[in-house]
Amino acid sequence: MRGFISIIKEHKTAAIVACLLVGTSTGAIAQADGDIKVEVINEGNSDFFLTPVWFGFHNGQFDFFNSGEAASASLEAIAEDGIVDGLVADFTAAPGVPGDIQGVVSNPAGFGGAPVIDPGETATGFVTPINPSAYQYFSFASMIIPSNDTFIGNDNPFAYQVFTDSDEINDPSGVFTIQIFGSDLYDAGTEVNDGLGAAFSAAAGVSTDENGTVGPLGDENLLTFFDGQTAAGTTVTDFIGSGELLATINISIVPEPASASLLGLGVAALAVRRRK
């Protein structure tokens, strides 16, 4: 485990909140307006929260994790602590990837000042496109909290072709939709799933390094949080079943300034894609 993480464990929730606030106020975040709208919905079918969601548009060359392999330091940071800085830096430095076409969707109204996306909440971010057909593919990542190292993301960089060769959204409805179910959760394999020292959990204790590999979470690995208190003061009684919808990501093009066009934006007959 990285050295700075061992320090964070002592006052984990408070420290992570501070890091999240800093990380979502840097230059590499979703702006207040722009041409590409990324909407993230925590569907509220469980008592779990989403940390700020990192996303990036690329040409298919950005592959930030693979199931069955050890997590990178950047993936460990987001899976254990919801911190996106490493992924932002990796994306910027990746060869052949437009590092500026990325962002972080957060919810300023999250509990206790933390910009997390609460159950039932929706958060939206915007980035300005340059040449969408040059970066047709979409990747994302977010931590599930409370948890030790559970996250969502796509291990296949070609899973979501959002744009066509004509710079248009790759869906006749004009909205590219990704649905994320309980069966789509990943375990980073970096921290033992015993609830101890877990981010945004009120439980005490010190986490234990697992030194494993990334893989599907499995239904039993969040059960340790049953009836436990979160940092928001809520109690975890509703879990994420494998067939339950956890989150939805909608991507669309806003042709006018967001402040004007979003007032009349209506979305109907969405074509739905499950996470791949």
UniProtKB/TrEMBL annotation:
It comes from the Bacteria. Keywords: Signal. The keyword tRNA processing does not apply. Residues 1-30 form the signal peptide. InterPro entries: Ice-binding_C, Spondin_N, Spondin_N_sf. Residues 254-275 form the Ice-binding protein C-terminal domain. Pfam families: PEP-CTERM (PF07589). The keyword Manganese does not apply. This is Ice-binding protein C-terminal domain-containing protein. It comes from Algisphaera agarilytica.
